[in-house]
Structures are given as structure tokens and as C-alpha cells.
Amino acid sequence: MLELPHLDQVDQEIIKLLHENSRISYAKIGEMLSLSRVAIQKRVENLIDNEIIENFTIRLNATKLGKVVSAFFEVEVEPRFAEEVGNTLSADPNVISIYQMTGSSSLHMHALLKDDAALENFLYQNIYKLNGVVRVNTQVVIKRFKQGTGLEL
């Protein structure tokens, strides 16, 4: 388990349990840690208030929902257009994540798309048409070994 030195052992255990199953009840956590449901609830609220826990979420199976093409894009953008292009692409529902990076490519993006035709359309209609885009390098995922949702414990 990742050591979180600024949190006590109980908070670390709570985070571990919630990370494994965010639907676990406070009562069940309390039972596992020999604390009351109310004590667990207060600790979780404190973790939320202190922004240690940002949100609770689920992970969807993209393939089962019709998004079979997972692609990563290195989008080189003229520096003066980086903010505009980043904001425009981040608003697209196909885009899972987008980051401004150092190096030759200024934006790194992950998108989930329905099929190869949707990928082609996304490239030409959503990326290449944007002012400031200089070059796009696209890589399609063929096999996933691990997928995270943020900091892994």
C-alpha cells in the first residue's frame, strides 16, 4: 500500500477500502476497522473537506458501451493556441483526458471512439481543423495491461 505519512493508519485503511470498492458502506468499514459508522462517516467527510478524496466514481466498460477504439494523440500546437485548442478538445465527449506536456508535442490526449470511421472523423473534424494545430501523432491501443483512475494505492 502507498504510504500516506500525513494521514493516520485508520484514514489510510479507509482510503484503501474505498479505493477497492467506493460503494462499501460506512457501517461495513466501521465493522472491519472496529469503529462506529458515525466515526467512519466523520473521517470520510474530513478526507473530502481536506480534498484528499476528490470524488467517488465508477469505471465503465467502454467496449460494452460501443467505444471500441481507444486512441492517444500527441497534438503539437503553436504555443499561442495551446490554451484554446486544449479547452476546445476537452469539451469533446470522446476525450477522456488531455494534458499540456513539455517536449515537441504540447498536448497529450486520450479519446474513446466508436470505430475507425469515428476516429478518422475525429481527426479531421475535431483536431486538424483547429487553429494552431501543427501536427498530430495518433496511436491506437491494441491491448490494455492496466488502467488507473488516478493515484493508485
From TrEMBL:
Gene3D superfamilies: 3.30.70.920, Winged helix-like DNA-binding domain superfamily/Winged helix DNA-binding domain
Keyword Transcription regulation: yes
Pfam families: AsnC_trans_reg, HTH_AsnC-type
Transmembrane stretches, start-end: none
Keyword DNA-binding on entry: yes
Domain of life: Bacteria
Domain HTH asnC-type span(s) in chain numbering: 7-68
InterPro entries in alphabetical order: AsnC-type_HTH_dom, Dimeric_a/b-barrel, Tscrpt_reg_AsnC-like, Tscrpt_reg_AsnC/Lrp_C, WH-like_DNA-bd_sf, WH_DNA-bd_sf
Cellular component terms (Gene Ontology): cytosol
Signal peptide: none
MF terms in GO: sequence-specific DNA binding
Keywords: DNA-binding, Transcription, Transcription regulation
GO biological process terms on file: response to amino acid
PANTHER family referenced in this protein's UniProt entry, alphabetically: LEUCINE-RESPONSIVE REGULATORY PROTEIN, TRANSCRIPTIONAL REGULATOR AZLB
Protein name: Lrp/AsnC family transcriptional regulator
Lineage summary: Bacteria, Bacillati, Bacillota, Bacilli, Bacillales
